[in-house]
Amino acid sequence: MRFCSLVAAFCLSLVLIAPQALALPAPMPEDELSAKSDLVALVRVLSVTCTSVTKDEKTGQELPGYLARLQVLEVQKGDVKPGEEVLVTWRAVPKGALGPWTVNYYPGEEVLTHLTKRSGGVSYATTWWNAKGDPIKAPDTKDLPVTPGESVVAEPEQPEQTPL
Fold first, then answer.
1. Does residue 52 contact residue 74 with C-beta atoms inside 8 Å?
2. Which of 76, 68, 70, 28 is nearest to 50 (CA)?
């Protein structure tokens, strides 16, 4: 009897967890990411600014919106030249949301990313939730601003020292 109760509890937990797990989209394969991206580039995050805070309709949580300034270091695809800057926008997701739905950019990090132009062509967004690779250079901080108008700026790059 005890065994049947354990099996029933296990099956019930699977039924309750499975729909949430199915809600996660698969990572987009690299070739598809590149095909769907307007810009594939190695970038350095110069700054991140909180542009707004809006209440999420479902959770009621106050969620910041962000604008990051990225300096393009190398281009694999796109019409941007190394040294130019692009803007990327995104919105935070509610705490407790299932899945990595947003891509955060952190001041000072250098990372390969896949971007699509937003309508109007002024800024970009990430192509998919796995559009940003592992940082080549770690960020200065992972603390993002939470007040509109507040910015976190990357530390200036130090020139490489050559031994004498």
1. no
2. 68
- For residue 16, give the 3-state DSSP assignment: helix
Using 50, 70 and 90 to split pLDDT, how confident is the model at 3? very low
How many CB atoms lie under 10 A from the CB of residue 121?
A: 8
> C-alpha 55: how far from its chain's center?
20
Q: pTM (2 decimals)?
A: 0.80
Asked if the structure places residue 82 within a domain, the reply is yes
How many structural domains does the chain have? 1
Amino acid type, 64: P
From residue 85, give the alpha-carbon distance in Å to each of 14, 23, 51, 63, 65.
Answer: 47, 35, 18, 26, 20
- Tokens of residue 4, six digits: 């049947």
Residue 47 corresponds to which amino acid? Answer: S
Nearest of 33, 38, 28 to residue 118 by alpha carbon: 38
What is the CATH classification number for the domain harbouring 104? 2.40.50.120
In a domain, residue 5? The reply is no
Q: Which amino acid is at 49?
A: T
Which tens digits make up the pLDDT trace of 4-56?
Answer: 454 444 444 444 444 444 456 889 999 999 999 999 999 999 999 999 999 99
